[in-house]
Specification:
The complex is a heterodimer of chains A (525) and B (321). Chain A is α+β, with helices and mostly antiparallel strands. In chain A, 29% of the residues lie in helices and 21% in strands. Chain A has helices spanning 10-28, 77-83, 131-142, 151-155, 182-185, 202-205, 249-257, 271-279, 308-316, 320-328, 356-365, 384-395, 412-416, 433-441, 455-466, 470-487; strands at 49-50, 54-59, 88-90, 96-98, 101-106, 112-117, 163-167, 170-174, 212-217, 223-227, 240-245, 263-264, 283-297, 332-334, 372-377, 401-406, 425-428, 490-503, 506-507, 511-512, 515-516, 522-524. In chain A, a hairpin with a 5-residue loop joins strand 9 and strand 10. The chains are: A alpha+beta (525), B mainly alpha (321). Chains A and B meet through helix 1, helix 7 and helix 13 of A and helix 2, helix 3, helix 7, helix 11 and helix 12 of B.
Chain lengths: 525, 321
Amino acid sequence: MPGIAEPLSRRTVLAGALGAAGLGLLSLSGCAPARQEPTIPQAAATGATRPGGRLRVARPAASAAETLDPASSLSAYEYLGALYNRLVKLDERGGTVPDLATEWSSNADVTQWTFRLRGDVRFHDGSAFTAQDAIASIAHILDPATASPQAGVLGEVIDASAMTAPDPHTLRFRLSKPNAEFPSLLAAYQCYIVPADAVGDARRTGIGTGPFRLSSFHPAGTGSVEAVADHFAGRPVLDGIDFFSVQDASARVNALLAGQIDLISQTNLDFATARVVAASPRATVARSENAQWYTIPMLATSAEFSDARVRRAMKLAYDPRRVVETALNGTGSPGWDNPVPPTMAAFLDEPRVHDPDKARALLKEAGAEGLSTKIYTSSYDAVFTPLAVAYRDAVADAGVRLTVQNASSDSYYTQVWMQEPLMVSYWFTGRPIDQLLGQIFRSGSSYNESAWSSPAFDAVLDDARAETNDERRRMLYQDAQRLIVEDGADMTPMFGDRLVGISRDVVNYTEYGFEFDHLSIGFRK
Amino acid sequence: MNGAAAVGRRVLIALLTIVLASLFVFLAVQALPGDVARQLLGQDATPEAVAALRETLGLDRDVWSRYADWLLGAVRGDFGVSLVSGAPVGPDLLTAFGNSLLIAVPAVLVGITLALLLGVVAGVRRGRAADTAISLTALVLMSVPEFMMATVLVLLFAILFPVLPAVVLRGSEATPVELLPSVVLPAVVLTLAMAAYVVRSMRSSTIDVMSREFVVTAELKGLSPLQVVRRHALPSALLPVLDVVALNVAWLLGGVVVVENVFNYPGMGKLMIESVHNRDLPMIEAIAVVSAAVYVLCNLAADMTALALDPRLRTRRRRSA
């Protein structure tokens, strides 16, 4: 039974049905060119905008417990970038660029960092932004009561007493150990700055320094933000953004096709649905390139994958190009088990070989010839099951027999993840290089999904953090990638493009990693 | 005297059914993998945060004492607070239940009336063109799942000819009046899905009754066909259909889950999906009680109607009088 047909989820069936019905009806009515396969556009439309307008966004709300506190793990993500600013943000190559901080520098052994802050910034309530607000916001992240996902990363190098303000627009951090990449850790989307005297109220008020101010917010319901005319980075094109919670993915797509909304957030459309959307007269698809980082963690503590030779064989056995073709219809790029996306500056461009014979030999050597086990998947993400099936087929040449096991999506990350020996998983790309490697691969990190523990890797990471020469540091991060490709337990078969449903009237949509351009997005002139 | 005892027995059984339903649902939620703390905090949660939330919510106590606490509260009308939003369960559930009624009541009224009528027509005109058309349509509607029907209707009336909204955007904040345009499509889907079953069973029941001796006698007496159907056949033919109607109405009120989800309609079905996803036990329990109550009431109503319609019972009453 397993391995032949996975039970189709209702959503998959619906998407398929929608696809079939949609294509049929659209071409019948003459809305789409008949008999022509609709293709998915490469990039979002750009062009001149007419000032004003309100963007309507459909989002899946996590739960009624969601909050506007950026530090919380329950934050309503779509609002954050509109309402708040960080000290620094990331560019498309993973570099750190100014936001509220204009420049920064360190002492010689990178244990002390000084940030120069903008002096012309006001919060939505009219109060001026100073270094004290930044100190209070970061202290709030570090506070164990907040239980912020970023607390672990920052807590490794600073505590609340490590921050001082020599003057109102200078902020100094004294690190407990050297870290040349420290500024990039402040670019996480938990690190938005809220007013010092109202840190606890941010979850309701949403007062920040961002290009939009909050006008209403109902957890798991609707909410609106209004443009700030005198924002330091310039006035946004839009007058405002309205957010709507729509839990069902196909309902979000229907709302877009019917013209009720302009953008679907946090939804990677499956390929069939994306084609229907791209063929519609009102809506189209924008790609967020390499936004989805797909992984296949092999649990290094399990009986199956504790042997490094077996792990190496599982990699040599498959060709990621074939997986991209099968699982993504080509809308992505092969990962070759290197977790760093090719667009990042620190990317190690050394493709590993695809060698099923060597994989077979390694398995034999490890006494695991004809390895047979389960690979877990779920409908949590539209690409999971195609990925699991593609990987199963790809490793068959090396004599590895996998059975695809479908698990319930609502408990996938609580019952299967980090517990079953082999599964498919994903992350969003957009972590700075040090955080990416440290959070997902370092021994003992709570996000280390393969439970891989390599003292050599940890040592390289420590050396990189202490290295002040940019070129040498980049080489150390590349050594770390080499270790992951050769010995690591978390495979990266591919990076997928996120297929975003968007109205044909919207131009200048840009999103990479966790960065969304709120200023230039607007309606076509 | 006897009648009062029977009614009392019925009410007791109804209450017991509701309590048992609440117990089974409580245990079923315990058996689900993951708890509210894990589901709420999700993949990003630190183990410390999960443990802390678990303790705050009292999830570390044993199942039976938690169920006993809940039952004591529920008896006094206190269904507790949602573990997710922290707000009392009652008002949210009432709003959602009211919204569900907004699509269910029109669906029931229109659907049942239409279905009974068409079923009788098909039964009386068995084998003719009208019967073929009605039976075929009913069969097709029965075979198409509701979400597929919903999707096709959305494509037609919201996307190709945009006269109705595809989904509800202002969900829980909307007033019933604001919801009205969004009520049409879900109500139509429910009507069609439900009516098909009732048509089929009304048709076979009519055919069955029309061949009985008393109907043949009525025809031979020289009554007009309309009178035969209305006075003699219909009351008998309705009896076996009542249970089907009751089951469909109960299904409609308790389980419009799929339809509400497709339309993002803020009713009880959607609330249930979200509550189960989050393992929000007080909300799930309250929904279970309401669903069980609706189910029990529908069956009770069907039995009462059957009593009222049964000619034999009427005869007996007349004799004793």
